[in-house]
Every structure is written in structure tokens, then in C-alpha cells.
Design brief:
Length: 351
């Protein structure tokens, strides 16, 4: 038995590096599932894991944290997932890999210059690389789950293929600290770009089948937004559950009951987890998020439970963004979120 040189494996995990499927020398597949790139390998999959290592901005930092720390998330999540190769969730007495076929499609082929020289053209190339893998997963009737960090590669690049493939209405379940609904991408000021601050507004303006009345928005808090932005969404029928309402009225059970609005009359549901939702209430200090940190965030249990309940209801695609960098336990949290989502899918009868 040979230990791979990753932090945090601990004494409870023995990893046989000779048998663990690898994407590259430092990156195992998610939870040791098969690595699949060709149409034949993807065929029959229920869930497809996709990495999107893209971080916005031209400087060495994003939100006050080194870009290299953000970019490592797809690799670090997969590394920490190697702790759990059995797929057995003891809380549910379920082996998720006995129920569903999960594959890892590796990372989107994002050009290095998209991270180093973020012109509008380079950003669009990065977005297209993610769209390609998402479309291949959807073509195979698999649910794409994209592990990334910034928009458009871990938001709009998943929403767009879902909208283009769906004839009916599309619902959205979004957890976030920010509404991401500025008029333009503030980094490029290019109307083609669905960036970190405007991707949600761009989604609703670009695709008429994305219905604001089927938006379930969870987690925004504090004094960050302009009143007209929030009120406009509410006036158009969005279902908004700020953390204050979660804490004072609903609790996690109540929020899960409200997920129904994303499914009311829709043919597809896109799920977007912006992990700055954790703030300081998650498994690691909120300050590791740099400028994105805000008080009164979700707990690790709440986000795992929310994912599990979404799985039981079903979804078309999912993405992660702003995964707090530099925390092994937070990378493990993403593994839990995905595993409990898959368990929910299994319980719903998708086999």
C-alpha cells in the first residue's frame, strides 16, 4: 500500500495508488469512479463529474486570496474524495455506487491564457470548453455536476446548455451570498460575458425559458445589494429565502419544503451552489473566503441536507462556485454534498 502525497488522508484511509483511477499525476477521479471521456465510456452514466478550473481577474488574487488557491479546488476536492472510495453512507445505510453509475469526465480544457489574460475572447473560450463537456453529459442523459470557482465557467456554462436543450420552462435553485445580477460583467464591461457579478441576470435575459417565478434563491444576507435589484426579482415572482428568514421562521425543513417552486410546471431544474453561502458558519472560518465572507452563513449540515433533498426531487445539472480555498474539511464538504445528492437521486428511483 502506497500513500499518495496528499494532506489530510489520515489513519482511517489506506489508498492503493496502483489501483486508484487517476486523471493526472496528482488528481484521482472523484471517489475513485471510472474516468470517462469517450461517448462509449459516458454512455449509461447517471451522474458525470466535471472540473472547471477557472478564476476571474488578471491580478494574482481573487477576492483577496491567491488565484492558485482558488484554481486548485477541482483537484483538491477529488484528492479529499479519495478518503471515501466505498461510496457507503452509513447515515443512510446506502452504497451510492450500487444504485447509480457515476463517472468522472475530468477537467474542461480551459486555456491557460483564460486565467492569465482574461479578455472577453479568452473567457468565452473557457466557457465553451465547459459547455462542451456539459453537453456531452446531457446528451448521454447524465446529470453534469461541475466543480469550479468562477463565472461563467461554473454557472452560465451549465445553465446555457440546459436552457438550449429544454423546450419547456427551466427552474433554478441557487444558494449564494450575492445576487450576481449587475447589468454588466464588471471585469470586462462586455455584454457577452456572464461574469461573477452578473451571470444570473445574463441567464434570465438570454433564455426566455428560464423562469424567474421558478427561481428559489437561498442565503443572501446583509447590506450588499441595491434595493431595486432585490425588489425587481421579488416583483417578478422569485422565491427568496434570506438567512434571516431561514433562522427565524423556516429552519432547514421549511427551506426544503420551499424547493417545490423550482419544479412547478418546469421540465428542467438547474442547481447552483455558490459556496460563499457558508460565511463563518461552515466547517472552516469564513475569513478564508477573503472579501466574499459575510456573517450568518449556512452550516455544513444545512447545505448537505439541502443537496440531499434536491436529489430526492431530481435535477438536470448542478454547479459549484467559490469553494472556500485552503481548507481540507471544506473540500470534504463538497464531497459530502455530492454524495448525499446522489443518495437522494437513488432514493427517488433514478436507476
Amino acid at each position: 500500500m502506497t500513500k499518495l502525497p496528499w494532506e489530510g488522508m489520515g489513519r482511517y484511509t489506506d489508498i492503493d495508488s496502483a489501483s486508484l483511477p487517476m486523471i493526472n499525476a496528482q488528481t484521482p477521479t472523484f471517489m475513485g469512479v471510472p474516468y470517462a471521456r469517450t461517448a462509449e465510456e459516458i454512455a449509461g452514466a447517471d451522474v458525470a463529474i466535471i472540473g472547471a478550473p477557472y478564476v476571474a481577474g488578471a491580478s494574482g488574487k481573487y477576492a483577496g486570496v491567491e488565484k492558485s488557491e482558488w484554481l486548485a479546488a477541482p483537484m483538491r476536492v477529488r484528492q479529499q474524495s479519495a478518503r471515501y472510495p466505498s461510496g457507503y453512507i452509513q447515515e443512510l445505510d446506502m452504497d451510492i455506487f450500487e444504485k447509480l453509475r457515476v463517472i468522472d469526465m475530468g477537467d474542461a480544457d480551459i486555456p491557460s491564457e483564460s486565467n492569465m489574460d482574461p479578455t472577453a475572447e479568452n473567457i468565452l473560450r473557457a466557457q465553451a470548453a465547459v459547455e462542451e463537456l456539459v453537453n456531452r453529459a446531457l446528451e448521454a442523459d447524465a446529470i453534469p455536476i461541475v466543480i469550479g470557482q468562477n463565472s461563467p465557467c461554473s454557472s452560465y456554462a451549465i445553465a446555457k446548455p440546459i436552457a438550449e436543450r429544454c423546450a419547456g420552462k427551466v427552474g433554478m435553485i441557487s444558494t449564494d451570498t450575492h445576487w450576481d445580477s449587475r447589468p454588466l460583467d464588471y471585469l470586462t464591461n462586455d455584454e457577452r460575458i456572464a461574469g461573477s457579478g452578473n451571470w444570473k441576470a445574463k441567464t434570465y435575459s438570454s433564455f426566455s425559458n428560464f423562469s424567474i417565478s421558478n427561481l428559489v434563491e437561498i442565503g443572501e444576507r446583509g447590506m450588499l445589494e441595491q434595493a431595486e435589484t432585490v425588489r425587481d426579482y421579488l416583483n417578478k415572482g422569485a422565491h427568496f429565502y434570506p438567512m434571516w428568514k431561514v433562522r427565524t421562521e423556516l429552519g432547514i425543513d421549511g427551506v426544503c419544503n420551499e424547493l417545490r417552486h423550482a419544479y412547478d410546471g418546469t421540465e428542467a431544474v438547474y442547481v447552483h451552489f455558490d459556496m460563499d453561502i457558508l460565511g463563518g458558519a461552515g466547517p472552516a472560518p469564513g475569513d478564508i473566503l477573503g472579501e466574499l465572507a459575510e456573517p450568518m452563513g449556512m452550516t455544513d449540515y444545512e447545505i448537505i441536507r439541502l443537496s440531499h433533498e434536491i436529489g430526492k426531487r431530481g435535477l438536470t445539472g448542478m454547479s459549484f462556485i467559490c469553494i472556500p480555498p485552503g481548507s481540507m474539511v471544506t473540500y470534504r464538504l463538497i464531497v459530502y454534498v455530492i454524495a448525499f445528492l446522489i443518495a437522494g437521486l437513488a432514493l427517488s428511483g433514478r436507476q
